[in-house]
Amino acid sequence: MAEGDKLEVREITRIERIGAHSHIRGLGLDDVLEARNISQGMVGQKDARKAAGIIVQMVREGKIAGRCVLIAGEPSTGKTAIAVGMAQALGLETPFTSMSGSEIYSLEMSKTEALSQALRKSIGVRIKEETEIIEGEVVEIQIDRPTTGTGQKVGKVTLKTTEMETNYDLGNKIIECFMNAKIQAGDIITIDKASGKVNKLGRSFTRARDYDATGVQTRFVQCPEGELQKRKEVVHTVTLHEIDVINSRTHGFLALFSGDTGEIKQEVRDQINNKVAEWREEGKAEINPGVLFIDEAHMLDVECFSYLNRALESDMAPVVIMATNRGITRIRGTDYKSPHGIPIDLLDRMIIIRTIPYTEKEFKEILKIRCEEEDCQMSSDGLTVLTRIATETSLRYAIQLITTANLLARRRRATEVTIEDVKKVYTLFLDESRSSRILKEYQDEYLFNEGGSIGGSNTKVTPMEVGDN
Ligand SMILES: Nc1ncnc2c1ncn2[C@@H]1O[C@H](COP(=O)(O)OP(=O)(O)O)[C@@H](O)[C@H]1O
Ligand SMILES: [Mg+2]
Q1: Pairwise CA distance, residues 426 & 413, whole Å
Q2: What pLDDT digit, counting tens, does each position of 307-322 carry?
Q3: How many domains does the chain contain in total?
Q4: pTM score, whole prediction
Q5: Domain range enclosing 223
Q6: Do 328 and 379 fall into the same domain?
């Protein structure tokens, strides 16, 4: 791009999509980890939320490796919502990897490789690096352009602190940086000696009245004190998985963007573990263990469970949180039954958080929050009916009806969703139990029917009670 060309940047409005858990902003706990009634989008389920808060605290302290937590409870009791709340409470600094048990059955890599990558994505490494920088106020810049217009530029800059002043010769690359950052006399800048990166910290206070043209955004800073050359510590946070990918010769760092990382050799991982251990000893790196959340954990099979069992013993292991809605059921890959479909030896390591069904009042509050989240003006009798539907069918189904009823109301150009809208969508869209009832009544007319072998019926059964098979 030629110099002086104006780069046009159009304003981008980001569209935040509304997801199943987008109303959850944290666990809604107070200072002593007591769950507030309704807070940060969370309603009820207080014991489970408090327990989750204790786990969050444990992760934050980062001292304990390889603990395993199971969140168990009926469908729609907020297991996934609590995990989302935990991730929010931990913040962006702590790695939180979320996956579903079924994700390991991908064709691209073995199940244990997928788990291994997920575990390593959940371990952050803070790498401390000392760099030498030059920090000072620009007294004067002089750049000589070659008369031909092309070729190397040469230049000089004079920088000062409150105590000293020095001249530096500028190479072509740094001159480019100076020009891009529009550095001029009176700016306080830093130059990274290793990379040549130039950073503008602001304008010197002494120049505050030089120009009328300084905009309101101009930041004024003091002229630095002491030596011009300083040592500065910078911290990069990466995950073990990112280090693996970058150092795996077959893939290279571009794989980080495509996500197409394939399998990583054990040798590479061993080398990296050794290197990180070395850095830790030298005080160059700290590890920041996070959380691996495996939803629908009953989808894992016995190989995976055994792999996790072993992996949890490593001192670099994250805290693993699993969620399941299964009761006593078959462990995948075996003929044995076990609570939650998880082998006893792994269960033995776990602490279990139980989620319990909601009361009608809690359903109402959750639905109210969802209406707000979806920008839906629900009439009060509409909300009462929805609550009724949630207690009699399922919370998820009732949440779906908000969206559909809202659309109907908007089509009518109505500002409020009425009880009629809710009734209409209730008849247009079936819930699971009505659908199974109809299937039973009309089974002869469907293709591939196997006469009554369908699990569902009009009596409501929850997986917690019956298990898989
Ligand atoms: N305590 C709660 N507070 C607010 N929203 C909740 C709560 N529990 C569940 N939800 C919402 O209800 C829906 C179903 O809950 P979900 O967490 O998916 O259930 P589960 O994972 O236990 O099957 C989701 O949209 C979830 O965000
Ligand atoms: Mg879930």
Answers
A1: 20
A2: 999 999 888 899 999 9
A3: 3
A4: 0.75
A5: 128-234
A6: no
